[in-house]
Amino acid sequence: MGQMDGPVAGLVKGRELQSDSDASKFIMLGLSDFQEQQILLFVSFFVMYFLNVLGNMTIILLVRFDNNLHTPMYFFLGNLSFVDMCYTSAIVPKMLANIVSEKKTISLVDCILQLYFFLCFACTECFILAVMAYDRYVAICNPLHYTVIISTRVCVILVISSWLTASLHSLLHSLMASRLIFCGNNKIQHFFCDMAPLLRLACSDTSLNKLLIYTEGGLPVLIPFTIVLISYVRIISAILRVSSTDGRSKAFSTCTSHLIVVILFYGTIAFMYMRPSSSFSLNYDRIVSVVYTVVAPMLNPFIYSLRNKDVKGSMKKLFIKRK
Predict the structure, then answer these.
(1) Cβ-contact 172, 120 below 8 angstroms
(2) Contact, 5 vs 13, CB < 8 A?
(3) Are 191 and 159 in contact (CB under 8 A)?
(4) Which residues neighbour 118 within 8 Å (Cβ) at sequence distance 6 or greater?
(5) How many other CB atoms are found less than 10 A from the CB of residue 93?
(6) How many whole angstroms from its chain centre is CA 232?
(7) d(CA 70, CA 76)
(8) 143-157, 270-284, 306-320: least confident range
(9) H/E element holding 188?
């Protein structure tokens, strides 16, 4: 028996070390397994991230320092740009580091933190887009009462409520994810820590996590989307009642940029999370994730600046002052 204790003890100790190792870190497989594509991926995502930070920071500075942009609409736009910048920053820097690294690992703590910030910024974006849709509804359908309904106090309350609700939502799901036990396979088939890849790797019971996702999980998307949908139904109805063509065109132009951003953001989310499970494909899911986590936040400032006369005018004044 004494001779058996050594091998048995060594085997048990080896399993414990393996379990601790698997439970303490994950391997991020990223977007591609081919080594020759890593340089192209790094350059592409670095450029997109740089454009994201540059574009959104420009919008934030313009809204902050141009008095002509000190209105509720641009206050919300500045917050949206800040969320977009943080949203991508929670994912892309770690992804770039993993692309150039041989280990491509992320600790369990960092993974849960990334999940928290990803959910927080994503949900905040949903709420901010809904707030912006409501702002456009009031501006077009109740223009005489706009300054009373959308006051400075109301703007601050709406933005703080958006951040607070999103933070509580992401905290709940992150805490539930932190209770999971991971063992065996520790390879995340994604380029960031999303909920679905983590649930696939969990060894413990995930029924409570899935129940929470199916009940409360969709509310931060469905409620803002309902607000956006109702707002635009009323906006379009009000615009169609305008007699002159120029009046309709002018009214619709004030919300065209926002509508494009909403379609791009919610369209990719709907494709990602509202499909039947039988149609799930790992490669397609990762590509769609790139659209709403990297591409859409990068395009938002350009969509607003290219179609908005006030923003373009503010940028021209900024360049003239620099000259």
Answers:
(1) no
(2) no
(3) no
(4) 87, 90, 91, 170, 192, 193, 194, 293
(5) 13
(6) 22
(7) 10
(8) 270-284
(9) strand 187-188
End-to-end CA, the chain? 87
**What's the whole-model pTM score?**
0.86
Residue 17 φ then ψ, to 5°: -65, -40
Distance CA 53, CA 85 (A): 6
Task: Give the DSSP H/E element, type plus range, for residue 105.
Answer: strand 105-107
Of all residues in the chain, what percent are helix, strand and coil, respectively (each to 5)?
A: 80, 5, 15
% pLDDT > 70, the chain = 86
Read off the pLDDT of residues 286-313 as tens digits, 9 standing for 90 and up: 778 888 889 989 998 888 877 677 787 7
User: In terms of Cα–Cα distance, which of 108, 113, 92 is closest to 27?
Assistant: 108
Q: Give the pLDDT score at 208.
A: 92
Q: Are 296 and 265 in contact (CB under 8 A)?
A: yes
d(CA 97, CA 92): 9
The per-residue pLDDT for range 236-262, each reduced to its tens digit, is 998 888 877 777 777 777 788 888 899
Tokens 């930070």, residue located: 53
- Burial (0-12, 13-18, 19+ Cβ within 10 Å), 294: buried
Residue with tokens 């849709």: 133
Instruction: Specify whether the CB–CB gap between 87 and 293 falls below 8 A.
Output: yes
Q: Categorize the per-residue pLDDT at 166 as very low, low, confident or very high, splitting at 50, 70 and 90.
A: very high
Look at the block and give the residue holding tokens 């409520």: 161
Q: With CA atoms as reference, report the closest residue to 53 among 304, 297, 317, 316.
A: 297
Burial of 313 (0-12, 13-18, 19+ CB in 10 A): middle
Task: Answer whether residue 274 shows pLDDT above 70.
Answer: no
Cα(234)–Cα(239) distance, integer angstroms: 9
